[in-house]
Amino acid sequence: MATYDTVIRNGQVADGTGAKLFAADVALKGDRIAAVGTPGSLKGDNEIDASGKVVAPGFIDVHTHDDTYIIDNPLMAMKASQGVTTVVCGNCGISASPYGRSDIPHLISLSVKKTENLGKTFAEFAGKVDAARPAINGAFLVGHSTLRFDAMNLDVNRRATASEIGAMREQLDLALEQGAIGMSSGLFYPPAMAATTDEVAEVAMPLGKWGAVYTAHMRDESEDILKSMDETFEIGRRAGAHIVVSHHKCAGRSNFGRMRETLPKFSDAMKQQEIAFDVYPYVAGSTILRKDMLDRADKVLISWSDSVKGVSGRDLRDIAKEMGCSVDEACDRLQPAGAIYFMMDEKDVQGAMSHSGAMIGSDGIPFDTHPHPRLWGTFPRVLGHYSRDLKLFPLEDAVRRMTSYSARHFRLAKRGEVKAGFYADLCIFDPTTVIDTASFEKPISPAKGIDTVFCNGAIAWHDGKPGGGRTGRALNRQQMQDEAKA
Ligand SMILES: [Zn+2]
Are 98 and 171 spatial neighbours (Cβ–Cβ below 8 Å)? Predict the structure, then answer.
């Protein structure tokens, strides 16, 4: 009988495909899952008793802004503690490469704090990630807004010229060749608002050639959401790219219930082209503090402010009262700042999460002083609150939306399933106790019920602490494409 490095015994396997839980031994050798066998059939140098636990693929957080946080904080506790073994970075048009300048515009500072973490090329940036020896993997998109700032010399409140579009396209092409997994856009944000549909489609052209993904924080997630969906689908079609719509929501009280329109529209479009979307399990969103978003929200909490200290985590209305000014005026005084906006309908969030096109992404903003609780809570909240307690979908399906479905759309080869030959990215958790503990009041708090997390065969998290494994890396698109064929 072959002896493996590690055998995980007595657990119930949720293999990531959505198949029913089954009892099995899972054997690891090197960075791979070597075998999945009947209970008691496999022998290892180390054995882990997973009695009463579920053995699932490591979760894939498809929507993050962890681009450089993973370099500065390679243990990635806020994600490893949730069972996450791969973060998809560079969403919403914001990436740390390719970027030839040394200044960091306000929007980009959401995910890049230090100049030395920028990359003139994608290869240079990926080298920095690998050198940090992170505990979990990163897969990286190129941000359209990053390309714009660079090609247009920060003069972004206008349309790009033909030669600027050409320069952006060339930069994207080179980054994809070097291993970036796709392009994201954030037409909702001022630095990309002036970009036309044609501009984005023309910049995105190399995506089709490389089989890379297009992700979109759409121009509008409120009144004009249907129009924005059409625009997104058109860009994907013209570029020959498959699409992931980011953090699908219908924002603002006047748009509550409109999932009745958007979800059938997704279903129809999914018959024509490859489309999916990500969702986070909360009724509040979070981004930079913006006056034009205040009306849309029932409540606004400040997540950070550079100019006024001691306001993080507090209600903007209370801050304004204390300042003796209007909410708009307070908004000005706090800048630059970030905020949490309560702007969604619970029924809509549940509808989106349980749609056939939905996968889970946190959209957590890692550098915030008082972050949205999704940064530490997303995956255990879906498993514990939505699947176990509310029975929104079975546990196997919750796991599928965090693993194989995500891996398939982002082309993360040999990840997202508990299967021989796949990478040993695994999360062992207790299905009876798993739950998020991060709240809007106390957002930095590790989840309960996550027992052991393996990334590439090493332990990234165990028993409430980092496990010491530092085997994560920047996943390379070309390598993954080759592995998928092998
Ligand atoms: Zn976004």
Answer: yes
pTM value is: 0.97
Number of domains present in the structure of the chain: 3
Do 436 and 397 share a domain, yes or no? no
CA atoms within 13 A on the CB side of 456: 15
* pLDDT tops 90 at residue 302: yes
Give the tokens for residue 137: 């993997």
pLDDT band at residue 324, thresholds of 50, 70 and 90?
very high
The range of the structural domain enclosing residue 304 comes to 290-340
Strands 450-455 and 458-462: antiparallel
The alpha carbon of 134 and the centre of ligand 1 are apart by a number of angstroms equal to 24
Write out pLDDT tens, residues 66-86: 999 999 999 999 999 999 999
Considering the domain architecture, whether residues 161 and 276 belong to the same structural domain is answered as yes
Q: Average pLDDT in the 419-432 region?
A: 98
Q: How far is it, in rounded angstroms, from Cα 467 to Cα 453?
A: 8
Cα–ligand 1 centroid distance for 307 (angstroms): 24
Query: Where do we find the tokens 């503990």?
Result: 437
pLDDT at 1 over 70: no
- 419 CA from centroid of ligand 1 (Å): 33
Q: Kindly state the average pLDDT of the residues 35-43.
A: 95
Measure the CA angle with vertex 168, ends 166 and 173; round to 5°.
95
Are both 463 and 373 inside the same structural domain?
no
- Tokens at 242, concatenated: 């498959």
Cα(225) to ligand 1 centroid in Å equals 14
Ligand 1 mean position to 336 CA, how many Å?
18
